[in-house]
Write a structure and sequence with these properties.
The protein is mainly alpha-helical. The chain contains 6 helices and 2 strands.
Amino acid sequence: IIYLLAAFIVSLVNAVILTRIHTRGDSYFYPSIFYTIALANGGYLFLALSTNIEEALLANKIVFVAGAFLPFFMYLGLLNLCKVKIGNVLQVPLLALSSIMYLLGASAGYTDFFYKNAHFIAKNGIGGFEASYGTGYIIFTIVILIYATAFLSTVFIAFLQKKNVSYHSLASLIFIGST
């Protein structure tokens, strides 16, 4: 729990620092990456502190905000770094897709679409849950794989087109994206 608390605090501090130094003309998705990471770390902390299945599923829904929207923000950041303009034509459908993915995750505990069943577990005082996955979880996993493919394809195309992008930055993004 100490690790989760430290990660949550560090991510909050990073988000606050970014908020203080971020200029309004900059793209919105960079700060959004930091905010969703802080939210996810808070969700993981709350999951570890949960004492029953309702608390565990609620904490998991907080984590799923990042699970649904972080790939979207990271992909927009990558496109910006690679100087690829997509406009609202692609941003709006991707945002809608992320919103649908979040709604699928938020349905846990109300329907069996995301998790067929879930039960609370505690190991060494750390809360969590075990679940059998439903169709919604499979769809969520497929969407994450699509984002990963788009991410790697964009980096590969940027390498081939030799856009004015640092190869070190692209290599770092590949490493970050693959972890």
